[in-house]
Amino acid sequence: MTSTESKDTRAPAAPGTVGVLFMAYGGPESLDDMPGYLADIRAGRVTPQAVLDEITNNYRLIGGKSPLPEFTRAQVDATMRQLESLGRPLRAYIGMRHWSPWIEDTVRDMLDDGIEQAVAIVLAPQYSSMSVAKYQKKIKAGLEMYHGHIDFTFVDAYHTEPGYITALADRVRAGIQSFPEGEREDVHVILSAHSLPVRIVREGDPYADQLHETARLVAAQAGLSDEQWSWSYQSAGRSPEPWLGPQLDEHLRDQAAKGVRKVVSVPVGFVSDHVEILFDIDIAAQEVAQALGMTLVRPPALNTDPLFIGTLASVIARHLPEA
Ligand SMILES: C=CC1=C(C)c2cc3[nH]c(cc4nc(cc5[nH]c(cc1n2)c(C)c5CCC(=O)O)C(CCC(=O)O)=C4C)c(C)c3C=C
Ligand SMILES: [Fe+2]
Ligand SMILES: [Fe+2]
C-alpha cells in the first residue's frame, strides 16, 4: 500500500503485517496554516506578530507552503517500493510532529488497522532529545490516548550509514564540479545542520557529536582536506538563550575575511527540501554571500535520491521483527 492511500479505502491489515511509521517535522500546506503551525512548534506560547509576519513571508517567498509533506510522501513511496523485495507484509504510515497527519492520529489509524508490530523511523538521521525523542514520545502519547498497544521498534539514528554518506559526498563533489575546472581548488565546502540551544548539548545530547561524525565522513569520502571544508550551524530559533554556532551568515563573513569567494553549501541534517534550505540557505545565506562577493552553490537536497532511499530501506529492514 502506498502512503497516499486514503484511510477510508484502506482494508484491515492482514495478520502479521508490520507497520512502518515514517515521521517527519511537518509543514504548513498554505499560509493560513502558519499561526497554528507555529503555535505547535512553540508549544502553545504566543508567537509575537513580528515573528509570525517574518516567518510567513519566508514561506511566501518559497511558494506559499512547505514542500516537506510532498517530499515525505515521495520518500515513503520510494522506500516501500524497495522494501517490496523482502516479500514481507508491510504497511506504510506517515505521521508528522508539528502538522497533520499528526503522529498521534496515525497511531490511531495503525491501531484501527490491526497493526501489532511496527518500525518507527524519523526522517532526520541524527538523534536529539529535541527532535527524534519528541517524535517517539508522540507515538507513546498516541498509544495512551487510544488505549492500544503496538510493539514498536525505534530507529534512533542512522547518521553514519554508507548510502547516506555517499549521497552527501556526491553532492559535495557535484557542487565543486559546478565551478570551472581551474577554480575548483579554491572552492570551500560548508557542511551545516539545524542549530540547537547550547543548553541541550551541555545536558548530554548526542546531536552535535553525531553531526560532526556525519560531516567528517562526508568530507573524507569527498576527498576534502581539512582546509577545504568547515562546519556551521543554521536556522537557530528565535529564543533569547544561546544556540550552537557559528551561524551560517556569520560563518560566511569569517570565510570571506579569510579570502574565500567560492562556496558549496551542503546541509547534512535535512533530508528533503523545506524552508530551512529553500529560504535559510537559498535566499538568506545567498544574499549574505552575494554581498560579500562570494558565489554560493547549493546542490539539490537528498529528497528521493536512490542512495538515500536505499539507506532508509536497509535501516528499516534491519529493524523489522523476525518473520
Ligand atoms: C535538533 C533540533 C531541531 C531540528 C532538526 C529542527 C528542524 C526543523 N525546524 C523547522 C522549523 C522551525 N523550527 C522552529 C523552532 C525550533 N526548532 C528547534 C529544533 C529543531 N528543529 C527548536 C528547539 C526550536 C525552538 C522552539 C521554541 O520553543 O521556540 C521554528 C519556529 C520559529 C523559530 O524559532 O525559528 C520553525 C519554523 C523545520 C522546517 C525543520 C526541519 C524539517
Ligand atoms: Fe525546528
Ligand atoms: Fe527551524
TrEMBL record:
- What are the alphabetically sorted keywords of the record? Cytoplasm, Heme biosynthesis, Iron, Lyase, Metal-binding, Porphyrin biosynthesis
Signal peptide start-end: none
Instruction: Name the InterPro entries on file.
Output: Ferrochelatase, Ferrochelatase_AS, Ferrochelatase_C, Ferrochelatase_N
Question: What would be one Pfam family of this protein?
Answer: Ferrochelatase
**Swiss-Prot/TrEMBL catalytic activity:** heme b + 2 H(+) = protoporphyrin IX + Fe(2+); Fe-coproporphyrin III + 2 H(+) = coproporphyrin III + Fe(2+)
* Coiled coil feature spans: none
Pathway it belongs to? Porphyrin-containing compound metabolism; protoheme biosynthesis; protoheme from protoporphyrin-IX: step 1/1
EC class = lyase
Q: PROSITE patterns this protein is in?
A: FERROCHELATASE
Stored CDD domains: Ferrochelatase_C (cd00419), Ferrochelatase_N (cd03411)
- Enzyme Commission number(s) of this protein: 4.98.1.1
NAD recorded as keyword? no
Q: Which of this chain's residues are annotated to bind Fe(2+)?
A: 194, 276
Where in the cell does this protein reside?
Answer: Cytoplasm
**TM region positions:** none
Superkingdom of the source?
Bacteria
Q: Tell me the protein family, please.
A: Belongs to the ferrochelatase family.
Function per UniProt: Catalyzes the ferrous insertion into protoporphyrin IX.
Q: Mind telling me what this protein is named?
A: Ferrochelatase
